[in-house]
Amino acid sequence: MSLTYDPIHWTPHKKLYDRLLLTLAGMYLLVFSVLEWVWHPQVTAETLLIRATGTLAFLMLHLILCIGPLCRLDRRFLPLLYNRRHLGVAMFGVGLVHGAANLLQFHAQGNVDPLVSLFASNTQYGSLARFPFQAPGFLALLILFVMAATSHDFWLKNLTPPVWKALHMGVYGAYALLLMHVMLGVIQLEKSPVLIGLTGLGMFTVAGLHTAAAWSQMKKDQAARPAGSEAGLHTEGLPAGFLYACEVNDIPDSRAKMLLMEGENIALFKYGNQLSAVHNLCKHQNGPLGEGKIIDGCITCPWHGYQYRPHDGQSPPPFKEKVCTYDVLVLAGKVYVNPSPYPEGTARPPAVFEPAAFQSPVNPS
Amino acid sequence: MSPFLRKVHRYAWFSLALLLPLGWLAAIWVIPDDVIQTPAGPVQPDALPLVLHSREAGDFVINVRSDSSDTKRQIEILIKKPLGNPNTTLVAESNGSASTLGLLGTRGIRRFDLNSLTSHARPLRLQFIDHLQGRTLRTVVFE
Predict the structure, then answer these.
(1) Per-residue pLDDT tens listing for chain B (143 residues)
(2) pTM above 0.80, yes or no
(3) Rounded-to-integer distance, Cα A90 and Cα B62, Å
(4) In this structure, are residues A278 and A292 in contact, taking their beta carbons and an 8 Å threshold?
(5) ipTM metric
(6) Which of A358, B11, B35, B48 lies 20 to 30 Å from B112, alpha-carbon distance?
(7) CATH code for residues B50-142
(8) Cβ–Cβ of B1/A286 closer than 8 Å?
């Protein structure tokens, strides 16, 4: 992906991802259509289109929401994360077909503006049983439209990652709106226990995975804080500002230990007989650099492969991303880090230790 | 993800983990016992026993019925699909005079007893008219 508005740079992985996505979506629509015709032979083509696209979009949203926490819980799911935005844009496309078909079928045949009809044909907003369920569906589609429209890295760069990320957290609001759209809409009419069960299963799966990932991450954050009585304490004889981080042996070779020191999120990398510390968040999409590894002499982000040189936090040319760096000291097998960050891209000499004196743990690749 | 974002996500999901199941349960709680699937409509006259003519026109099946002595006749319309023009009126026309039979309404069966002026007139023209849009949608002629 590019930071200027260039077309998508297709890679073999992206092409495979998208082909798989289109194939599976097409197969779902085909199977759904056949089953609907068998079970409800009198169904019209318009109703079939509305049902097929609505169920497909809802299912895709569940899958998209599960990818994030699954990757946190098990790194083997990471390939699903790389092009998750393709899945999101496709899901919006399917949802748009569903919404447009509904608008045409139920609101465009009269003499009132379709959007006015959408919000004004049923005004029982004070009743739960008779709530105009189409309104939350429409609002969810608006949120998903904004997300799809800003999915390109161009917007990530120009809106800045914090704003972009806040915007894309709107997917949680969209999910809540869509769940109520389904529960107050088709469930009220169909009353099928299977549909109710499936909706509940999806909801509990998504909520459960997120809760489990949050719990797991809370424990990792606690582990990232230096443990022991020396943790975070200044040691006599060291320059001011240095805090104890860990033992040299605690860090596998070409890997990192993630630290939280005085509010700073730090990734401390060991490579050969050297140690360097950089800011833990990738400039691309705030991926955890500390969960990556050193490849070809560069820190490599596990999410999308962005790279940074460990001693100065700069991406190798021609790339221009930079992260903050920190000072590191090694003394008698103990590693100390100064959590005051240097400006992004500042070269800092790595801490050097005698490798023969310390045995590294087995690299958990 | 930065610690701040992680905290925001945690708060968001711990809230949703409580609110979503509540919403789901509330929606199940208010599912109505009876769901009206058959649209309401006016009381229909009983169908006369004999079908003299039957014609299919688009989404309609039009029958001309009579009693056994052919003294009374009625038009029976079977509306197969919801109307694209819901304000469709049926008008019977014969010998230069027109008689409005009634609104077709929604999907189902509608019957209209013909009066003495139109019941045996030939040809009998049935016109489907949308007065809101001011146009005749369809004309069916029984010779």
Answers:
(1) 666 777 888 888 889 989 999 999 999 999 888 766 666 667 788 999 999 999 998 888 999 999 998 888 999 999 888 777 778 899 998 888 888 988 887 778 899 998 776 677 788 889 999 888 888 988 999 88
(2) no
(3) 46
(4) no
(5) 0.73
(6) B35
(7) 2.60.40
(8) yes
